[in-house]
Structure formats: C-alpha cells, structure tokens
Design goal:
Rhopdopsin 7-helix transmembrane proteins, globular, 64% helix, mainly alpha, 381 residues, 2 strands, transmembrane
Length: 381
C-alpha cells in the first residue's frame, strides 16, 4: 500500500528493472517467480475471504453494528480494494522478476491506487482514534450512531484521494522515464506522500489513543469510587430505624401537606395546588440519575469493540513501519544502497497486514468470533 519507490532507482518491485533480474540465473528466477505467484495467490485469497467476511458479518448482525465497527468495515473495504486492484498487478510484476511489462498509464494508476489505499487505511485508524477520543472525553455530547461516523469515513477517503491525485495528474510523466520499471518518479512527492500517509498521522493517532485509554481508566476509577460511596452502610450500634420518606404532597414545595377536606385537597393560604401552577412556571426538573448514567457512559459493547483496536494499530505499525522507513530513506539518500531483497521483503510485509485484521478480530473479539462461526457454520469449541 503506498508510494513504493524512490525517485532514482526502483519502486514498485524493489527497484528491480530489466537489468537486475537478468536471464543469467534463469532457474533461480523461475523459482522466485513461482514462489511469488503461489504466495501472491494465497495472499489475495485470504485478504478477499477474510475482509469480505468482516463486511458481511457487520452488515447482517445487528450486535456488530457499532460506531467502531463502521470504521472497521471501511478499513476492510480498503483491504478488499487493495486485493482487487493492486495485488494482482504487483504479483504479476514480481513473477516477471520486477520488470514492468504493461503500459506506463496502468503503472500510474497502480501507484495512485496504492498510495490512496495505504493512506485510507491509516486515516481510518486515525478516524477511529478521533471518534473514540470524543466518546470518552465528552460523552454527554457524543451520539454514538450515524452522522459523525459517516462524515469521518467520507473525509478519510476524500483526503486519501487528494494525497494520491498528483500521480494521476501527470506527476509521473517525466522525460527519460524507464517503461520497464514501475515507480514514483518524483522524489519530493515520495517524501510528501510518506509524511501525509504515515509519519504525520501515526504520532497523532498514538497520542489520541493514549489520551482515550487514559480517560477510560479515569472514568473507571471514578465510577468505582462513586459506587463505593453510594453503598449502604449498616449502623454501628442499636438505634431506631430511619424514618421512611413521605411522598410529595399535592401542594407547592414550601407548603405543608394538608389533609383532605370533603374529598378534595385544600392548600394553606398563599399556596396553590401543583396542578394549578402553569407548567412553564414550575422549576426545571433535573435529569434522573439513570438518564445521566445512560448518557455519560460508553456502552459495554462499544468498550468490547475498543479492546481490539490497540492490536489492530500495533499490527499495522509493525507491518508498515519498515516499509516507510526504507521508502523515505531511498528518497532522501539517493546514494545509499538498499538491497532489492530488503525492499521486496518490506513491501510483502506491508501487504500481509491486509490479511491480518480478520484474524485479529477472530482472536481478540468474542462477538466477531461468534458471528464468524455462525457464518461459516462451525461448531462451538
């Protein structure tokens, strides 16, 4: 996912052009091509099956339709598009030893889709962090369903398309371009896209997650303290039982409660029955404790969905950090030698991340696990 090459030497496929995988080692190239073909087909199949199952499960199971899972569906959609639009061409070129045999326009489209989908993935993770931060820090103003999540998801895709648009607008059409190598030709754009797609959003995302989980810990500690303070305490010595509280009378709050007179209520002088006071003049009633509690807390289902997010973010960073470090190093230091095998390895590692998320949901989220078993008709253990 993303901006694969430095401007000077190699891009999509480890900087290997027609001169590096020459027929001098035909048997080795054939073995490497076969391994790339088998691995690529397996990877595409796993990404398609796993992320399709995620989308279908959230769409069909009401218990999974939470704000956090809407972003997970958007993330799964980015991985599905990657498997459909990027991985087949990547594997095709890997099978041919890194030589690009198709048109330059198709290469530009591949580069743009690669940049956009990688950016969409990390922007979706950032959108989740923003949404969860708002839900924890201002819960009374947070409304869990609908509009905010859709706006954030739409913004992530629009911004991702904006980052990738220069490639489709002719940025790669440079003089002396080698048609046998598919890469990003502009070194400045490589740095720009790397910063926008990874190095800028990652620290922001981690900071927001840190603040979110810190807020959750504080909320939990406050809640436990309140529950402990409200717990009834038995008196230490003998004594009369507490007097039961009387129900409110029909008169105003400052009026004594009279007895019935001829089957009707008669209030004291200067007092009116409550039903005679206009509703607009009554003092506003504070919301009940149950309502405040319901509005101020995050539902248990949402908290369960949030537990899987650190694992998803951690897997993304483990898979993509090596790629972006190598990627920007090649752009900033054209004279530095980076082994083609290293570039190819970190590229494959980044793409493997698209297959990991459904596995993470299965292992770390009991609701996803139950729905997956139901969809696949697997028996419970």
């Amino acid at each position: 996912m993303g901006n694969r090459s430095a401007a000077d030497a190699g891009g999509l496929l480890a900087g290997r052009g027609p001169g590096t995988g020459t027929p001098g080692s035909g048997a080795a190239l054939g073995a490497a091509g076969a391994a790339a073909l088998v691995g690529g087909v397996l990877l595409i199949g796993v990404v398609l099956a796993g992320n399709s199952l995620v989308c279908a499960s959230v769409a069909s199971e009401r218990s999974l339709q939470t704000p956090t899972n809407y972003f997970i569906v958007s993330l799964a959609a980015a991985d599905l598009l990657l498997a459909l639009l990027v991985l087949p061409l990547f594997v095709y070129s890997e099978v041919h030893g890194g030589t690009w045999l198709l048109s330059p326009r198709l290469c530009d489209a591949l580069m743009a889709m690669d940049v956009m989908l990688c950016t969409a993935s990390i922007f979706n993770l950032c959108a989740i962090s923003v949404d969860r931060f708002v839900a924890v820090t201002v819960p009374l103003r947070y409304h869990g369903q609908g509009r905010r999540q859709l706006l954030l998801i739409g913004a992530t895709w629009l911004l991702s398309a904006a980052v990738a648009a220069p490639v489709l607008c002719g940025l790669n059409d440079v003089r002396g371009r080698d048609p046998a190598v598919c890469r990003l030709e502009d070194g400045d754009y490589v740095v720009y896209s790397s910063v926008c797609s990874f190095f800028l959003p990652c620290p922001l995302m981690l900071l927001l997650y840190w603040a979110t989980f810190r807020g959750l810990r504080r909320w939990g500690a406050t809640r436990r303290a309140k529950l402990h303070a409200r717990a009834p305490r038995r008196p230490s010595g003998p004594g009369p039982p507490p007097e039961p509280s009387l129900p409110p009378g029909p008169c105003g709050p400052d009026c004594p409660v009279p007895g019935p007179v001829l089957h009707r209520v008669s209030c004291g002088p200067g007092c009116l029955p409550l039903d005679a006071i206009p509703e607009a003049e009554l003092p506003p009633q504070p919301p009940t404790q149950a309502l405040r509690k319901r509005r101020a807390k995050i539902p248990g289902r949402e908290r369960k969905a949030m537990r899987v997010l650190p694992v998803v973010v951690g897997a993304f960073l483990v898979c993509w950090t090596p790629f972006f470090v190598v990627h920007i190093t090649r752009a900033l230091c054209p004279t530095c030698f980076v082994p083609p095998r290293l570039v190819s390895a970190v590229t494959w590692l980044g793409y493997v991340n698209s297959a990991l998320n459904p596995v993470i949901y299965t292992v770390f989220n009991a609701e996803f696990r139950a729905v997956f078993r139901k969809a696949l008709r697997l028996p419970c253990p």
